[in-house]
Amino acid sequence: MIHCNNSNGSRAGWARGFMALIAALAMGLASMASPAAAAPFAYVTNEFSNSVSVIDTATNTVVGAPIAVGSHPIAVAGTPDGKHVYVTNGVSNTVSVIDTATNTVVGTPIPVGSGPQSVAVTPDGTHAYVGNTGSGNVSVIATATNTVAATIPVGGMLQGVAFTPDGKYAYVTRFSGTNNVSVIATASNTVVATVSAGKDPNGVTANPDGKHVYVANVDSGNVSVIATATNTVVATVAVAAGAPGGRRYTGRETRMS
Q: Which of 27, 34, 39, 242 has the most CB within a 10 Å radius?
């Protein structure tokens, strides 16, 4: 979950926190299904105890003691090979890297922008993109060196980050006021398109064939469907009452949480 101290009030903070919890569960579980492991593991941030818990999904039990990270950890993302997990520390303004073989933090925390809210690793595992809510930019971490290789100005309160399956584009949601999604070309690390979405876009994901990106809009109570070929909204899907937050594409259906 995320602690929110801004003018949007507790409702927006709760919505983002709820999204972060769901995203942590979904992203950790999905990305840690390492072929070398006997069972996948879920990495879940514990914001107010500044730690990450590891769950063995075969037994649904917590493995070992919580892993100490930075202040107010929010989001997690695993590398495709399952060897490392990247954790955003929302108050420390850093990213911690966990070695999944030992479940220990490796190296020193990586300084990023202000209020890192989200993180996603490129499909090839070479970079981790961190959405910074406070500074309105994206920090690009080279996973080979765990250093920031680029900082992309975007603007607004950045929330979710998701890649197309080919890794050519990153879609970044901009919460509160802007109500749009920025499209980043990963080859040049520049914003190449801006797509209007619903009110307060939050969670974001691409479907497996890369033709569409789905964006959960907190205050609209709907999901914007973006065609990646044209970067236009081709459908708006109403969902159940309440603020939609985290979202994860699961095979043929998109699950709203």
A: 27
